[in-house]
Design brief:
By secondary structure, this protein is an alpha/beta fold. It has three domains: 2-89, no CATH class; 99-190, Immunoglobulins (Immunoglobulin-like); 271-483, Rossmann fold, CATH 3.40.50.1820. It is built from 16 helices and 16 strands. The strands form three sheets. It has an eight-stranded mixed β-sheet, with helices on both faces. It is flat and about 65 Å long. It starts with a helix and ends with a helix. One of its GO terms (molecular function) is hydrolase activity. Keywords: Hydrolase, Signal.
């Protein structure tokens, strides 16, 4: 048990390293490959295909926990291919799968005439370069550049035409002119980038001097740090739409919004019930404490008609982005959107070090901006987040209307809050990490006379896939509560 805890801690620590570290490039690549796997999972509902993938995925978990991040990426790719065929992918395909592309920066000045990118191997593959292997790269609708993959890493210079906005860096691998794989990532081009950042910085400082610490001023501090990091070439775990472009993203354009927020144009730049969509916010939750969150605000909120809110706690090594982009490619967002519910995913530290995120404090702040039904606050957590959810129920017994514990467990030291609380426990039959703990949690709650526990074990599902598979059942339980 001690070795397992240390492994989880070490894995989480590496994924929480500053963004200039090598681990952040690997973190981005792991996230991208996990998204590709989830897309293929949706495309292959055949139980036999999914069973093949599930048999492979525990290796990825072990590699995560022993810090073999490149190997974990390889295993995710193997699981993706297993969904498509029982036969291993050809050697040339595996070699091309291993490639990654890293731009010199993801936030650039629009005056740049070219962008340098590096093509490298994310993990080693046996065998040499496949004969006829090439890579084609382009930014938006600029002229594509094709290079032979004879020697890695390879530096490629991509032409730019001075256009502003969010643009896609597309990377295709080819074998004899046949596309084998492709990926895209965001590049944001801002006019007068340095001057724009300094303008936002100065205006944000003036606003904070006038208002003190608010949802907007706390968010601006983190936004400015994000802008500086991306402009300096640091890699973050996901793509951020910094520039303003029509139609590319269903979320706010961060530089544009930050500028308006800094100069106090609340109607356009602040966080209110009238502005719907997805937002990155930083919530002040105590003296010198800020909690980064990603939130979803549904359309048509009426200040006089409170709606439910779902708090979603990610697993170790994740962030506020995981429930929005992973766990079924953001399935929980779609579930909340069709019901008109708010969604809040706070960033968590390590459960071993600081406990769960301050959900009650986040709730108090957001309830001042959005019409939240305080009697319909739902909580869901995965893995480490599942343990944090169990702890939060005990810390704040009157806050939550129901809790869902997925792919994890937690220590029940004060069972009284669970006596009547609807508690859903979901775990996969192939989850070697959490199955025993989930069963123990069920037993502990039932032994303590908890009367509203639902336990479901999902056949041929492992740790990484449990959230996407269990969410429909979780929302069905919550819908039944809403109907009462």
């Amino acid at each position: 048990m001690r070795n397992t805890t240390l492994a989880v801690f070490a894995f989480s620590f590496v994924l929480a390293l500053p963004t200039f570290s090598v681990a952040q490039v690997e973190r981005y690549e792991l996230g991208r490959r996990m998204k590709q796997l989830e897309i293929e999972w949706d495309a292959h509902p055949d139980p036999a295909a999914r069973k093949r993938a599930v048999a492979i995925l525990p290796d990825a978990m072990n590699q995560f926990f022993t810090l073999q991040l490149g190997s974990a990426g390889r295993t995710l790719d193997e699981a993706r291919h297993a969904l498509d065929s029982a036969d291993p992918a050809p050697g040339a395909v595996r070699w091309l799968d291993a490639l990654a592309v890293v731009p010199e920066a993801r936030l650039i000045d629009a005056s740049k005439s070219e962008l340098r990118v590096e093509v490298r191997a994310f993990y080693p593959v046996k065998g040499g370069t496949p004969k006829g292997a090439t890579a084609t790269l382009r930014i938006g609708d600029e002229k594509p550049v094709t290079v032979p993959l004879e020697k890695l890493p390879a530096t490629v210079r991509l032409p730019l035409a001075g256009k502003r906005g969010n643009r896609r860096l597309r990377f295709e691998t080819k074998l004899d002119d046949r596309i084998v794989s492709w990926s895209e990532q965001a590049i944001s081009a801002i006019g007068d980038l340095s001057k724009t950042i300094e303008t936002v910085k100065a205006a944000a400082a003036d606003r904070e001097k006038y208002e003190g610490t608010t949802l907007e001023t706390a968010t601006l501090k983190d936004r400015l740090e994000l802008f500086r990091d991306l402009a300096a070439g640091e890699t973050k775990e996901t793509d951020y739409p910094i520039a303003k472009t029509n139609g590319d993203y269903p979320i706010d354009y961060l530089m544009y919004q930050s500028y308006n927020m800094a100069i106090s144009l609340i109607a356009d730049g602040g966080f209110t019930a009238q502005r719907n969509g997805q937002f990155w916010v930083t919530v002040p939750t105590g003296k010198d404490r800020r909690t980064p969150c990603r939130i979803f605000v549904p359309k048509g909120l009426d200040p006089k008609k409170p709606v439910p809110v779902v708090f979603a706690l990610h697993g170790a090594g994740g962030s506020e982005n995981l429930f929005f982009e992973g766990y079924g490619n953001g399935r929980i967002v779609a579930e909340c959107e069709k019901r008109g519910w708010l969604l809040v995913a706070p960033r968590s530290g390590l459960a071993f070090l600081g406990g769960p995120p301050p959900v009650p404090a986040v709730l108090d702040v957001l309830a001042q901006r959005y019409p939240i039904d305080r009697g319909r606050v739902f909580l869901v957590g995965h893995s480490m987040g599942a343990a944090q959810a169990v702890e939060l129920v005990q810390q704040s017994p009157k806050t939550f209307a129901a809790v869902a514990v997925l792919g994890g467990a937690g220590r029940v030291r004060a069972p009284e809050p669970f006596a009547t609380l609807p508690t859903f426990i979901g775990v996969g039959s192939g989850d070697t990490l959490a199955l025993a703990g989930a069963k123990s949690l069920k037993k502990a709650l039932e032994t303590s006379s908890a009367r509203n526990v639902t336990f479901k074990e999902y056949a041929d599902v492992e740790h990484m896939m449990i959230v996407r598979e269990a969410l429909p059942d979780v929302f069905a339980v919550w819908d039944a509560l809403m109907a009462k």
